[in-house]
TrEMBL record, chain A:
This is Flagellar basal-body rod protein FlgC. The gene is flgC. It comes from Jeotgalibacillus marinus. The keyword DNA damage does not apply. It is found in: Bacterial flagellum basal body. InterPro entries: Flag_bb_rod_N, Flagellar_basal_body_rod_CS, Flg_bb/hook_C_dom, FlgC. NCBIfam families: FlgC (TIGR01395). PANTHER family: FLAGELLAR BASAL-BODY ROD PROTEIN FLGC, FLAGELLAR PROTEIN. Keywords: Bacterial flagellum, Cell projection, Cilium, Flagellum. Residues 5-35 form the Flagellar basal body rod protein N-terminal domain. The lineage of its organism: Bacteria, Bacillati, Bacillota, Bacilli, Bacillales. It comes from the Bacteria.
Automatic annotation (TrEMBL), chain B:
The keyword Cell division does not apply. It is found in: Bacterial flagellum basal body. The basal body constitutes a major portion of the flagellar organelle and consists of a number of rings mounted on a central rod. Residues 14-38 form the Flagellar basal body rod protein N-terminal domain. Keywords: Bacterial flagellum, Cell projection, Cilium, Flagellum. It comes from Jeotgalibacillus marinus. This is Flagellar basal body rod protein FlgB. Belongs to the flagella basal body rod proteins family. Structural component of flagellum, the bacterial motility apparatus. Part of the rod structure of flagellar basal body.
Amino acid sequence: MFQSMNITASALTTQRLRMDVISSNMANVDTTRATFDDGEWQPYKRKSVVLETKGEGFSSFLNTAMNRDESVGNGVTVSSIIQDDETPGELLYDPDHPDANEDGYVELPNVDPLREMVDLMSATRSYEGNVTVFNANKSMMMSALQIGKS
Amino acid sequence: MNLFSGTISQLEQGLAYSSLNQKVIANNVANVDTPGYKSKDVNFERMLQDEIQMTSSSFQPSNPKHFEITPKQSTSGVHQRSFSVRENGNGVDMDREMANLATNQIYYDALIERLSGKFGSLNSVIQGG
């Protein structure tokens, strides 16, 4: 009965986690000391979430096996948080910086604030869309409770 | 005389359809950012076909075009659409989903309204006006 609310709740949780990751990226936009590898400080690397459909579980396989129709699904979940080690960070010339290399360059995190802002807007809009669905669902349930009252 | 005359069970079927549709819309909106997710919808015509095929044999139509609508609990009729609207393979069209959401909500409320009306008139009959 509350399945659609659970679906929407999973999406709200997911979008909030996505926003947490974006916050972390923005907060660490200048962090040059994130991890300590081989006696050297490494800058912060951009993180992002991987979303995945929830509900590709037992019931959906059973339905497929029984030649039944597609199941509705159970919402969305974050399958993993990945770190972008590929994109190189910007190099800043600052020989006095304690983390500067031999040539005097400091590697900054590979976080692009513009991209983070776009992702932030996207997450906000998705969250709002899900809130709209939740409210619609709630008002439908409330009207269902009015059956028989007069 | 059949006091309930099938109206209540038919409205109940309508509510079941509407609830299923609501779940499908919720799932589509939830997966708006999932790469590769394809939008799903409830195919009303297919559900209707299922209902026609489920017609019980006790029903004797006076015209071959008549059919009986039998109450049936069913989650069939959900099917996946195959196209994507974004470059990551996602097929959720937010405008469409929001329009469906509004339509479905009004439809549900209308059914509830009729169901309440039915109970109200029954009540009126029971109390003798």
